[in-house]
Design a protein that fits this description.
Blueprint lengths: L10 E3 L2 E4 L3 H12 L4 E4 L8 H4 L4 E2 L8 H11 L6 H9 L1 H10 L14 E2 L9 E2 L6 H15 L3 E4 L3 E7 L5 E7 L5 E5 L3 E3 L20 H9 L3 E2 L4 E8 L11 H5 L3 E3 L7 H4 L8 H15 L4 E4 L7 H4 L1 H9 L9 E10 L2 E3 L11 E3 L4 E2 L11 H19 L29 H15 L6 H21 L4 H22 L22 E5 L8 H4 L10 E5 L1
Parallel strand pairs: 1-10, 2-3, 2-11, 3-7, 11-18, 17-19
Antiparallel strand pairs: 4-6, 5-6, 8-9, 9-10, 12-17, 12-20, 13-16, 14-15, 15-16, 20-21
Helix pairs in contact: 1-6, 1-13, 3-4, 5-13, 7-16, 14-15, 14-16, 15-16
The protein binds flavin-adenine dinucleotide (FAD).
The site of flavin-adenine dinucleotide (FAD) has 42 residues, from α1, α2, α6, β8 and α13.
C-alpha cells in the first residue's frame, strides 16, 4: 500500500507474527508460545480493543450431559442454509469443552448459579440453552481482560500495541515472509517470520450503521487479497436488527434479550409489524427481523423503527441498566419513550479461506477468527458461535503452526524495498479522507445493505473504483488513508461477490433474485495471475463489471 525503503526499515524476527490480539489471535499466540515459539502480537490500537471486547451474549458450548454435540451441529447446519462445511462444524462444536477449560484456567469468570452450575442462556437458532456468559452481558470484556493478562504474563510472547500492519511481505513465489507495519511513532518496521497469522477481526466499519468498534476495517482480508490469498463468501454480512439510532450516540447493540422480555417493534405510528413478517414475530431470526425493520423504515419514510418497552415483564430500567443509561443522557426514559433502532452491520461471515487448522492458500500465511472463512457459519451465523470458532481455531492454528517446520528466511526475504509508488506528497489537491470514508459507509448501507439489487451494486462498484483511484493516487500515506483503502478493497470484493451470487440465501437478500437456488455454492475470489490459464470452473459465471484481475468461481 505504500512506498518504503528496506535499507532504512528495522527488521525484527520472530518464530510467529500474529496480527490481532482479540480472542482468535490471543489464543493462537498463547498456544504457539507454550510450544516454545517466540511470538509477536501486533495490535493497531490498545491490546484490548476489538470486536471481542464488545461481545455480549456469550460462548455457545456443549458442556453437560443434557445437551449434545449432535444437537449443536444440527442447529448450526440448519441456520447455515446449505453452506456450512459439516466436518468443520463438527470439529468446532466438539472443541468447546477444551477451549472453555483453557479460558477458566486463565481466570475467566463465567456466571454460575448459586449451586455452582453454569448459567446458560438460549439464543435464536439454538435448540438448547447452551450459551455461557460472564457478568451478564459483558462476556467479551471479561474474556479480553483474561487474555490480555495471559499475554502479558506468557513467556515468549511480545505484544506491540499501536502498531498498524500495512501489508504482508512475500517472496516472488508467494511465500509469506513477514509484515510491514507502522509503529506508534510513525516509523516503518518489518516483522519477519516464515509464519504469519491474520486475526484482524471484522469489517463492520465499511457500513455507516455498525455494532463494530473503529478498528474493524477489514485490514487482514484486504492484505490477504493484495498478497494473492483465496477469499470466500464475502457477500454474507450479518446485520443486527436493533442498533440504537440516536444522532450523537454510539450505535449500541440492543440485544434480543430485550425483545425476549416482551419489547415490541413498532413504527412511527405505533403499529406493530413483526407479527405479519414471521410466526415468531419479534423473536424471528435476525435476518428476517432486519429485513422487516428495513422494509418498514422505507414504507414509513422514517430513519428508524422503535422498541417499545412499556409492556415488558418488570422494570425496564432495572432489567436493562446499560441501555437505560445511554438513553437517559439523550433525555429518554425507556419505560415510557420508545427507543429508536435500526439494523447495523454486525458480523462478516466471509473471509480468508482456511482449512480446518487455519492454513490459507498462501504458504506461510494462516488466518483465524472473524477475518477467516472456515466454513462454520455457512450463509448465516448462529448467535455465540463466533467466539467459539475463534477459541477452537486459535488453539488449532497455534498447535499446527508450532508443528510446521520453519522456513529459513534469507536476507532476500526482505529485499523488495524499492519504491512501489509515490503517494500524496506532491499532490496539489487536499483529499478529505473523513468525507470519502463517510461516503463509502453511507453508500454501502444503501446499496449493499440488508437488501441489494444488481443496479445498486453495479453503481456501487463504479463509485468504489473511482474512490480507490483517488485515494491511491492522491492521499497522504498515513493510517487513515490505509484503513480507507482496506475498507474500499473489502467493500469492492464483497460487492463483486454479492453481484455474482444471483440468488437470495441466508443473510444475503437480493430483491431482484429473491429465490434460493437448488444447489448451494460458495463464492471464491482469488487474484488471477498474469498469463494464467483460466479453467472452465472459473469462467462458468462471468461477472458483469468485475475487475479482470480477479477470478470468481463457485465451488
Ligand atoms: C457488539 C458485538 C456483540 C457480539 N456478541 C457476540 C456474542 O455474544 N457471542 C459471539 O460468539 N460473538 C459475538 N460477537 C462477535 C465476536 O465478538 C467477534 O466475531 C470476535 O470477537 C472476533 O474476534 P477476533 O479475534 O477475530 O477479532 P477482534 O476481537 O475484532 O480483534 C481484532 C484485532 O486485530 C487487530 N488489528 C486489526 N487490523 C490490524 C492492523 N492493520 N494492524 C494491527 N492489528 C490489527 C485489532 O487491533 C484487534 O486486536 C459480537 C460482536 C460485536 C461487535
Amino acid at each position: 500500500m505504500t512506498a518504503f525503503d528496506s535499507r532504512h526499515v528495522p527488521a525484527y524476527r520472530f518464530d510467529l507474527v500474529v496480527l490481532g490480539g482479540g480472542v482468535g489471535g490471543a489464543f493462537a499466540a498463547l498456544r504457539a508460545a507454550e510450544q516454545g515459539l517466540s511470538v509477536a502480537v501486533l495490535t493497531k490500537a490498545a491490546a484490548r480493543e476489538g470486536n471481542t471486547r464488545y461481545a455480549q451474549g456469550g460462548v455457545a458450548a456443549v458442556l453437560g450431559e443434557e445437551d449434545s454435540f449432535e444437537s449443536h451441529l444440527a442447529d448450526t447446519l440448519s441456520v447455515g442454509c446449505g453452506l456450512c462445511e459439516r466436518e468443520v462444524v463438527e470439529g468446532i462444536v466438539r472443541g468447546a469443552p477444551e477451549a472453555v477449560e483453557r479460558l477458566l484456567a486463565m481466570g475467566t469468570a463465567f456466571d454460575r448459579t448459586s449451586a455452582g452450575d453454569w448459567q446458560r442462556s438460549r439464543e435464536g437458532g439454538h435448540s438448547f440453552p447452551r450459551v455461557i456468559h460472564a457478568h451478564g452481558d459483558s462476556t467479551g470484556r471479561e474474556i479480553q481482560r483474561a487474555l490480555c493478562e495471559a499475554l502479558a504474563a506468557a513467556d515468549g510472547v511480545t505484544c506491540f500495541p499501536d502498531v498498524f500492519a500495512l501489508d504482508l511481505l512475500s517472496t516472488d513465489s508467494g511465500r509469506v515472509t513477514g509484515v510491514l507495519a507502522e509503529t506508534g511513532r510513525g516509523e516503518f518496521a518489518a516483522f519477519c517470520s516464515s509464519r504469519v497469522l491474520l486475526a484482524t477481526g471484522g469489517a463492520g466499519q465499511v457500513y455507516r450503521e455498525t455494532t463494530n468498534p473503529p478498528v474493524a476495517t477489514g485490514d487482514g482480508v484486504a492484505m490477504a487479497a493484495r498478497a494473492g490469498a483465496t477469499l470466500r463468501d464475502l457477500e454474507f454480512v450479518q446485520f443486527h436488527p436493533t442498533c440504537l439510532y440516536i444522532a450523537g450516540a454510539g450505535r449500541a447493540l440492543i440485544s434480543e434479550i430485550v425483545r425476549g422480555h416482551g419489547g415490541l417493534l413498532v413504527d412511527r405510528n405505533g403499529n406493530r409489524f413483526m407479527s405479519d413478517a414471521h410466526p415468531d414475530a419479534e423473536l424471528a431470526p435476525r435476518d428476517v427481523v432486519s429485513r422487516a425493520v428495513f422494509r418498514r423504515m422505507v414504507e414509513t419514510g422514517d430513519t428508524s423503527v422503535y422498541l417499545d418497552l412499556s409492556q415488558v415483564d418488570g422494570d425496564p430500567q432495572h432489567l436493562f441498566p446499560g441501555i437505560s443509561r445511554v438513553c437517559s443522557v439523550f433525555g429518554m426514559d425507556i419505560a415510557r419513550d420508545p427507543i429508536p433502532v435500526r439494523p447495523g452491520a454486525h458480523y462478516f461471515i466471509g473471509g480468508v479461506l482456511t482449512d480446518g487448522h487455519g492454513r490459507t492458500s498462501l504458504p506461510g500465511l494462516w488466518a483465524v477468527g472473524e477475518c477467516a472463512s472456515t466454513g462454520l457459519h455457512g450463509a448465516n451465523r448462529v448467535g455465540s458461535n463466533s467466539l467459539l470458532e475463534c477459541l477452537v481455531m486459535g488453539l488449532r492454528a497455534g498447535t499446527a503452526i508450532a508443528e510446521e517446520v520453519p522456513q529459513a528466511l534469507s536476507a532476500a526475504a526482505f529485499a523488495g524495498g524499492e519504491k512501489r509508488r509515490d503517494t500524496g506528497s506532491d499532490s496539489v489537491l487536499d483529499i478529505n479522507i473523513e468525507d470519502l470514508t463517510y461516503s463509502l459507509k453511507s453508500m454501502m448501507w444503501r446499496q449493499m445493505g440488508v437488501e441489494r439489487d444488481a443496479a445498486g451494486m453495479g453503481e456501487a462498484l463504479e463509485k468504489i473504483a473511482f474512490w480507490m483511484r483517488v485515494v491511491e493516487d492522491l492521499a497522504e500515506p498515513e493510517r487513515r488513508s490505509w484503513a480507507l483503502l482496506n475498507m474500499l478493497t473489502v467493500a469492492r470484493l464483497a460487492t463483486l461477490s454479492a453481484l455474482d451470487r444471483d440468488e437470495s440465501r441466508g443473510v444475503h437478500y437480493r430483491v431482484d433474485r429473491p429465490a434460493t437456488r437448488a444447489e448451494a455454492c460458495h463464492t471464491l475470489i482469488r487474484p488471477k495471475l498474469e498469463g494464467q490459464q483460466v479453467t472452465r470452473a472459473e469462467v462458468s459465471r462471468p461477472l458483469a463489471g468485475a475487475s479482470p484481475s480477479y477470478a470468481i468461481h463457485e465451488s
